[in-house]
Amino acid sequence: MTATFESQRAALADVVAIPVTPFAEDGSVDPATYRALLRRLLDGGITTLTPNGNTGEFYALTPAERSLVTELTIEEAGDRAAILVGVGHDVPTAVASARHARDLGASMVMVHQPVHPYVSQGGWVDYHRAIAEAVPALGVVPYIRNPQLSGARLAELADACPNVVGVKYAVPDAAKFAAFARDAGLDRFVWVAGLAEPYAPSYFSAGATGFTSGLVNVAPAVSLNMIEALRAGDYTAAMKVWEQIRRFEELRAANGSANNVTVVKEALSSLGLCRREVRPPSKPLPESERAEVAAIAAGWSI
Questions:
Q1: One Pfam family, short name please (predicted)?
Q2: 264-294 burial, b for 16+ CB within 10 Å, e for fewer?
Q3: pLDDT at 2 over 70
């Protein structure tokens, strides 16, 4: 029987939470705090988690730390959430991470955008195909940030690998997304708005049915309010949420998203939920900018 990946597809058509990775005072990953943050997401109604995403500082973690984060997430979530594990780097590393996730019971992997400076479209297909073919029982979700990639290339990948079931699309261009999705096959994949709440309304209008979120670490109810409005086709209500989160997301996006993770951790720190420290090349907010983030988080009545 051919796998249909129905449960994986359903999990992607939702708020896809990207948990932060909290660090202890000595700079190591803090397992107890990480578990507490996961429980807060789960108790808040979140049912899809992406350990080792960009908001989790994927590229700043060691291989052992990435494995630890995967293990902690799967243990803590149990059957309460679908787990979409971030994998990447060179092909052998990505394959090993995907197999590790599979062996622990994860149902999906998200393949981070290749960061090699020279990425051909054919090479993009080959990279993802090698990973997808290594774990045929897992749903595979490419993370697309390359505006040069054509929808036809994604279709080519899925022709070879039917376990490629969803796409995290993170090119900041709603018109390009609409065209890309239709060139690849609008109904063939679950389209996840990979630039989170700020882009979710425009991407949903063009065919997305889920969105990723780092903000959800701070205020799960806010993210859930947005997706409920979008599912209902109530764009007026969705834009009310957009207005509510606008400044927070502007702070994250400033200076080429330099403070993308920093702002989220600062908000969590202001709520007493984790330390504010991030790893280079990110940097904590200066003292002068922390009060605004704290005021935003407090205003969400969490």
A1: DHDPS
A2: bbbbbbbbebbbbbbeeebebbeeeebeebe
A3: no
